[in-house]
């Protein structure tokens, strides 16, 4: 018998608006030393499935309707609260998605680490504080935290995201669990950090013979780590098989669609950049912020001397990890962040010298698309109002012909005209990003800066939005700067790529040239860290690393 | 942290000067004076009195000399209680008022926090609705109604507690403390329910559950620290409010506290007394706000580090 056997798990959310079938008749099993990946898009029920195993969902609204989950022969779904705490303390541990919010900011990481030992539900397994401390330091060392003894008393905010996730892993492993559930453990991390964390989980698993359930939306990550894969969609299991069968011989339409949606390879459209015709020229741009967090009086040099040109018709990709200054650079170019030094010329006019009033007509020609379509649209304005506002403000339409222009925009971004009177919350994430794109192209701009426009979207939606952006660039003759941390996405859309790190440009090259032959070590590391949705090459990479 | 405190105390100096000046102007611009009374007093008597208290001097001279005295901690003589200084009167009233405020605060904290936390643990159930409705009632009920009501029930019908006094009979401090504390208890209950609800929905509480911690450890160790920061921040203004707002309760229960003097001073146009009390309360408000801010900073490691770094 397997370590964990889930049979016919069915869980509904009951609310005033009706019943949501979050998990519907899901069965799977995991054995010691084995890794099962659960893959699916948002709302597929993959996280809910795992949370229900540890009774971590608020009840109500959640209610388990049917099914069993036998762990070592005991049903997790029907055991009492004390038994459940014993399982959580000693047998089943969990790592969560966002290391920034999953650790208590008010308690030192050392204290949080030793809690499973000193408050163990099983009194015979409780340890003294000093023993627990030694064990925690040992484990911190093992997960790669330098100076573990000194850092034991530090608080979460004194660690970076990657380091916090290492602390989370140490915390999960401190009681030698037999099953480890990882809920998107690397989604909030940079690609190089992601590679390190994945390798760490793999090593620790092999050393301890732990069973792992790995929840992810990223097929690239899954290809490298899973023994078997279960694909979920809308609460049901679409397909479950060993990893190679899923990736190379899938029978299921939805799985195939997921695999096809992964951005792969080079830009399919021709490079429309006009040589020696820069639309925008940036010289030695510096943007510094006051730093209130350290004892040393000083500045955060978000952008520290960047020079670049974007040619008319070009799509320039800007990649970098979090904190590299890529978003600040984008905002500085559009005069949305106050610059410290340098110059920005747009069609020969030095934007940074213009007064706010003189800048207004230029704003019309430069637009921005933001990352989070949930936060960047005003929730109290209908789509019609959102799209009409820039047109009326810049005098590009009058109240008579505004309806027609707005409808045209809806057609452009692929939204139904009859949803013009709806509010943002009535749309899905992908549809909202279409609205945001429509708002950006409404004023017929020449330059668009897109800041991580697809990062908050599911992979199938991401593919649609990327194609929409490519088509609009073509149709409206746009020039674009495309900012992203996702290198595959940047490759798929850009003509030329700039790699940014710590406020400076490391390397600039035509996209395919950079992929074939990165010159700088940082670019090489970055490219090498991209997980590929191909189990064989991932395994090859793991064995050579 | 100490430099933060010092900084804030220095910032308090201009605030206090503004308070002194504004109050000085206001009391002097009000019609009448400390010696205008119903009975006609011979003008030469008034003149002599005014000369004695320097009231015949030009206003700016009075202001300068008053400011000079205040800097030395001297609020001057009372106009109405002849022969006694404002300092003496405040010193006489402060023990009872401070003690009453302290007990009321304890009542407010114990009842408020436990009701708020209990409600947040089971939101939208009877355990939430009952204390929160009671809290709403507590906020709405003025102390001049609650006080006599308590006296009627526990003092007169049941004869459990003495109806008035302060420190004269066992148990006579209970009803005044409850009367004064109830409004604040209700407010703290709503405040702590709100912030506890927010904290309990945080990811790190889910992490604590997933670790196998028991509910008491989760509530008291993981949730309370963050959840009570808004309450701590409210303590400063609340304490100042208790000190100043105790007048009604002091009157109902015949307590020899400060509130009595304050109101009397306003009716009597006792310039030095009004000024002295106002400055004293302003200084207390600044002090208690500082203390509660320091406590809030000390509770939050991130703020603690920033306070260390910045100043």
Give the SSE map.
The complex is a heterodimer of chains A (545) and B (311).
Chain A lengths: L3 E12 L2 E13 L4 E5 L6 H8 L8 E10 L2 E2 L5 H10 L1 E4 L13 H10 L10 H14 L5 H4 L9 H13 L5 E5 L7 H18 L2 E6 L2 H7 L2 E6 L2 E7 H6 L4 H9 L16 E13 L8 E13 L3 E5 L6 H8 L7 E6 L2 E2 L5 H8 L2 E4 L13 H11 L8 H11 L16 H13 L5 E5 L7 H18 L2 E6 L2 H7 L2 E6 L2 E7 H6 L4 H8 L6 H10 L1
Parallel strand pairs in A: 3-8, 3-9, 6-7, 7-8, 13-18, 13-19, 16-17, 17-18
Antiparallel strand pairs in A: 1-2, 1-4, 4-5, 9-10, 11-12, 11-14, 14-15, 19-20
Helix pairs in contact in A: 3-4, 3-6, 4-6, 6-7, 8-20, 10-16, 13-14, 15-16
Chain B lengths: L1 H28 L13 H10 L6 H13 L14 H36 L4 H15 L2 H15 L16 H27 L2 H8 L4 H13 L1 H16 L2 H6 L5 H11 L2 H29 L1 H10 L1
Folded structure, characterized:
The complex is a heterodimer of chains A (545) and B (311). With 545 residues, chain A is an alpha/beta fold. Helices cover 37% and strands 25% of the residues of chain A. Chain A folds into three domains: 1-91 and 178-260, P-loop containing nucleotide triphosphate hydrolases (Rossmann fold); 99-176, no CATH class; 313-328 and 356-530, Rossmann fold. Chain A has helices spanning 46-53, 81-90, 109-118, 129-142, 148-151, 161-173, 191-208, 219-225, 243-248, 253-261, 326-333, 356-363, 383-393, 402-412, 429-441, 459-476, 487-493, 511-516, 521-528, 535-544, and strands at residues 4-15, 18-30, 35-39, 62-71, 74-75, 92-95, 179-183, 211-216, 228-233, 236-242, 278-290, 299-311, 315-319, 341-346, 349-350, 366-369, 447-451, 479-484, 496-501, 504-510. In chain A, the strands form four sheets. Chain A has a six-stranded mixed sheet with strand order 6-7-8-3-9-10, with helices on both faces. Chain A has a six-stranded mixed sheet with strand order 16-17-18-13-19-20, with helices on both faces. The longest helix of chain A has 18 residues, at 191-208. Chain A is globular. In chain B, helix 5 packs across helix 7, helix 12 crosses helix 13 and helix 13 crosses helix 14 (301-310). By secondary structure, chain B is an all-alpha fold. The A-B interface holds A 54, 56, 85-90, 93-94, 96, 98, 101-108, 115-116, 119-121, 155, 157-158, 168, 171, 292-295 and B 202-204, 206-214, 217, 221-222, 225-226, 299-302, 305-306, 308-310.
